[in-house]
Amino acid sequence: MVYDTSDGTLIQPLKGHKETVYCVAYAKDGKRFASGSADKTVIIWTSKLEGILKYTHNDSIQCVSYNPVTHQLASCSSSDFGLWSPEQKSVSKHKANSKITCCSWTNDGQYLALGMFSGVVSIRNKNGEEKVKIERPGGSLSPVWSISWNPSSRWENLWNARDSEEEEAVHSCLEEIPVLKSITCSSQGSEAEEEEHEEEESLRDASSDEHNDILAVADWGQRLSFYQLSGKQIGKDRVLNFDPCCVSYFSKGEYILLGGSDKQVSLYTKDGVRLGTVGEQSTWVWTCKAKPDSNYVAVGSQDGTISFYQLIFSTVHGLYKDRYAYRDSMTDVIVQHLITEQKVRIKSRELVKKIAIYKNRLAIQLPEKIQIYELYSDDSSDMHYRMKEKIAKKFECNLLVVCSEHIILCQEKRLQCLSFNGTKEREWLMESLIRYIKVIGGPSGREGLLVGLKNGQILKIFVDNPFAIVLLKQSTAVRCLDMSASRNKLAVVDENDTCLVYDIHTKELLFQSAPMYQYLERKMFKEAYQIACLGVTDADWKELAMEALEGLEFETAKKAFTRVRDLRYLELISNIEERKKRGENNNDLFLADVYAYQGKFHEAAKLYRRSGHENLALDMYSDLRMFDYAKDFLSSGDPKDTKMLIIKQADWAKNINEPKAAVEMYITAGEHMKAIEISGEQGWVDALIDIARKLDKAEREPLRKCAYYFKKLLNHGYAAETYMKIGDLKALIQLHVETQQWDEASTIHSSRAFALCDKHLEFKDDVYVPYAQWLAENDRFEEAQKAFHKAGRQSEAVKVLEQLTHNAVVETRFNDAAYYYWMLSMQCLDIAQEDKPKKTEMLQKFHHFQHLAELYHVYHSIHKYIEEPFSFHLPGALFNMSRFLLHSLTKDTPLGISKVNTLYALAKQSKALGAYKLARHAYDKLQGLQIPARFQKSIELGSLTIRSKPFHDSEELVPLCYRCSTNNPLLNNLGNVCINCRQPFVFSASSYDVLHLVEFYLEEGITDEEAVALIDLEVPRLNKKDSKWQEKTSDNVQTMLLCEAEEIEEDDPFTAKLSFEQGGSEFVPVVVNRAVLRSLSRRDVLVKRWPKPLRWQYFRSLLPDASITMCPSCFQMFHSEDYELLVLQHNCCPYCRRKIDESCQ
Q1: Range from 7-21, 24-38, 1057-1071 carrying the lowest mean pLDDT
Q2: Is the pLDDT of residue 294 over 50?
Q3: Is the pLDDT of residue 905 over 60?
Q4: What is the pLDDT of residue 1062?
């Protein structure tokens, strides 16, 4: 059954268990509670009274308890206990040696205490493992029926302990307090008192230790005990004289609630001292629980009665001049010196009911006695109290007063004067109930008392006189009174909180605080202010200020508000005065402002409307979030005002964290930007889609904002749709670029970005530059270089290539270096084509980089041959490569290329192929270079052994010039050109032997296109089918002639052009005219079709049957068989790495 504690009404009965429910427990945050039943099940419920989980034990459930820190639940049955938490899929159960009757978690949720029917207390960690076992003396004869850990904060206890230590350090008198208890007792009584004190001190020490929780244990041996977490008992057992059924801490661990067979709930201190009865029941009390963070207690008894109590602790105190005594912790009395701020604590170990203090006397009324203390000395600053007398009688009284030698007790209409030994000396009976008593001084034993009665009578009594003296009588009951130092004036506060001052001798009323209100009723504010100046309370000043303000008497109101220091209203008055100085004189408007400040908003709105300032009323309602009142106020007003009101309401909804309502109101008011911002921040994609599709394409800024949030929320499709709607192609491309999905070329965004770039070339910078940067960041530099190139960022492209080239050389990746230099040369050619001022410079770089590319391409094979144990090249190829490289390194040697490696390879291959003269030359050259240690012995040995070989080269190795048919020496001082005709040799890019090609040039006036067209005509020759090539030598000139079988036709026009002037040192190129071009066969001519500004290069094959292949990308020449093999191996050109399918295109 779930009840409402405010009125006791039944909220809802919960039907989930099949048998009697034995226990319930709420989680600390109140969001869940659990119930355990005799049907062996535990059900977990939500705060909405919905069951969310059910699990079972083997026996009936005895108790359940939630971990105060987490939602971990402990459920205990007769034979085991289980631990469950939302993070677990199952309940972890642990066997118990005895029936578990009760359980309780420590304040930090780390340990669980289990009370057993066998009298044992078992302390477990939150995994169920036993850490401490407390075996109590009574055993199974004293089953533990209720336990509870003190819920007070460890740190709070620690600070309290430190505070008490500071008090002890400052006021040494505290050390004397323990002695007070045994001064007037017998020797036997003294011992008992001291034992109790020691026990109390141990409790205090344990509670102040930050490392020890305190466990209260109540058993059916009728004892209450306290234990530390370690299992050590604190103090001695407290005898209860009843069977306890429930124990619970109250007020953050300051007090303990106990109920049981005595049919009542009692309140104890945290040390186990009984204070009193909270409530009595007709049957046994089985449970009592305090409402968290409040002073309410719920009690359940055996007959099904549920009681709900509120515990109110009244203030018990006494005051005499500079000494103030008050009750602390219900059982202690603290006396404070108000000037020196010294404090002394007197521990009574019983409920303190009344306190009285006078001069050097202090009286404390306890349930069964009154204790009287006195100061050790007459020193005004002395704080050492000692026991003087103890009246061992039970007294029922309303008021208690102490004098030098007497105790005065008030019992309704009766006053009794007792001596300190408890003897009643005299008694006074009054006409009415006594409301106030005050000692006004006098000789010791003859002090005077002022007594105020409910009927308004004021009397003066002397303790040694049986007759009371009536001073005066007033019409209202007395609440408080005092006499002036001169003993001629009497001040009285009545039940109406009116202060009245009388002349004692004439009985004349000198002053009354009430007349101010009479002036206020008549709107006589200045006169009321004069009365108030005589002395009134802050409440009276505030009333005067408010009345004057509503009466628009600002001067008086300002003075009154100044008295109570109300800056808020002073600012209002100052504002109104400033406006009056500026000429405003609308009193309705001023009064409306006053009403608004006072909270009278409807009256203020009426005055605003009457004064013609309806907008101020709207502002007021809007600022106060009273939008319904504002709408009623507007009724059928201006649409602009309605829109403004909706916007303000939306602003308020946004501020109170109601974003959905705010979005709807902003859309209604047409404030789409604010609606979009909220929807975007909340991540509401659906709301953004609705707004974006409803907006007109002319509203570009809101649509851009929608697209921004679509991107932020990773809904790029909707962002693209929005950008398309407003036609913002640049933003659309930027969106596709920002997706950064470059590695998936087929992704929608990247492919769309490139497609848009192809259609709109002005955006290529926006696509290819970030693409290139991404490639570079991902170490794909070659692709990055191409992307920079496509973006038109030639400088970045060249920079990337130069860095790649340098890295390749440093890392001895010479094949890559050759490729990068080739790419650099092509980049320079592109720049020369586009940038006219840099044309000459770029062409020079083009030729330079082409040269370096060829050098590194060749050196790659030499380097591999030297560094690796096996070589894939034939000796002839390595011989040709090293010769080519040696002839090319006539000037500066490029970075990374080693002359030692080149000469060493040449020497070895020359020796192996029979070119002994060249080998000897190579070894001689090596002697003049710095040779690595690993080659030293091999080179020295080779230098010696080559001496034994003939000093000539094999004629088979001698290269032939195909222009002039001259045999060239292997070591050519001119480099890679013919020593006779100076014609440059054309080398195969794979084996580097001389190809049977002769380069020719076009006659001036013939364009490349015309030349190719003339060659393509391919005019047929007579008897060409049966023709054969023949070699003819005359005048030291070798000529290739095409002859018929029987007769020799006329000379080939191209062959005639091969002739040159003998003995010239200058190179004379082969120049052909149109007629020669017509005579050439298309299959005999190879054309390097260089892009502008370069001219094409033409080569004539002099041995057409020996097939030569030229790469259409890099224009390198190869023997066809070699080229096909290399393409099969690499699937690309071995020089420029152009894929074979791209080459075909």
Answers
A1: 1057-1071
A2: yes
A3: yes
A4: 61
The set of residues, in sequence order, having a beta carbon less than 8 Å from that of 828 and lying 6+ positions away, is 798, 842, 843, 845, 846, 849
Neighbours of 1060 (CB within 10 A): 19
Task: Indicate the residue type of 299.
Answer: V
Is residue 685 a contact partner of residue 707, using CB atoms and an 8 Å limit?
no
Q: Which residues contact 952 (CB under 8 A, 6 or more apart)?
A: 916, 917
Tell me how far apart the alpha carbons of residues 1006 and 300 are, in angstroms, rounded to a whole number.
119
Q: Which residues lie closer than 8 Å to 519 by C-beta, 6 or more apart?
A: 525, 527, 528, 531
3-class DSSP assignment, residue 991: coil
Facing residues of 23 across strands? Answer: 36
The CA distance from 739 to 704, in Å, is 17
CA–CA separation, 724 and 738 (whole Å):
16
Is the CB of residue 994 less than 8 Å from the CB of residue 962? yes
DSSP bridge partners of 369: 366
Beta-strand runs (E) in 484-615 = 489-494, 499-503, 509-512
Measured between alpha carbons, how far is 813 from 707 in angstroms, rounded to an integer?
Answer: 48
CA end-to-end span of the chain = 87
Contact 984, 899 (CB under 8 A): no
- Distance of alpha carbon 684 from alpha carbon 262, whole angstroms: 63
Q: What is the pLDDT of residue 948?
A: 85
d(CA 738, CA 708) in angstroms, rounded, equals 12
Strand-pair partners of 361: 358, 374
Element of type H or E holding 92 = strand 92-95
What does the pLDDT read at residue 407?
92
Q: Is the pLDDT of residue 1015 over 50?
A: yes
264 forms beta bridges with: 280
Spatial strand order of the sheet with 385-391 comes to 354-358, 361-366, 369-375, 385-391
In the chain, what's the furthest Cα-to-Cα distance?
180
**β 499-503/489-494 pair status:** antiparallel
Number of Cβ atoms within 10 Å of the Cβ of 1053: 15
Indicate the length of the chain as a whole number.
1145
H-run or E-run covering 663? helix 659-668
Select from 436, 409, 444 the least CA-distant residue to 424. Answer: 409
If you ran DSSP here, which 8-state letter would residue 643 be given? H
> Alpha carbon of 493 to those of 484, 489, 959: distances in Å?
14, 14, 137
CB-based contact 410:400 (threshold 8 Å):
yes
Tokens linked to 398: 């309303």
For residue 279, list its beta bridge partners: 265
Give the integer Cα–Cα distance in Å for 295 and 5: 13
Q: State pLDDT tens for residues 482-526.
A: 988 888 899 998 887 778 899 988 888 887 765 677 778 878 888
Helix H or strand E encompassing 1079 = helix 1074-1079
**483 is written with which tokens?**
């006499």
DSSP state of 987: B
Pairing relationship of beta strands 111-116 and 1097-1101 according to DSSP bridges: unpaired
**990: phi then psi, degrees, rounded to nearest 5:** -115, -55
Distance CA 995, CA 987 (A): 5
Least confident range of 710-714, 771-775, 971-975:
771-775
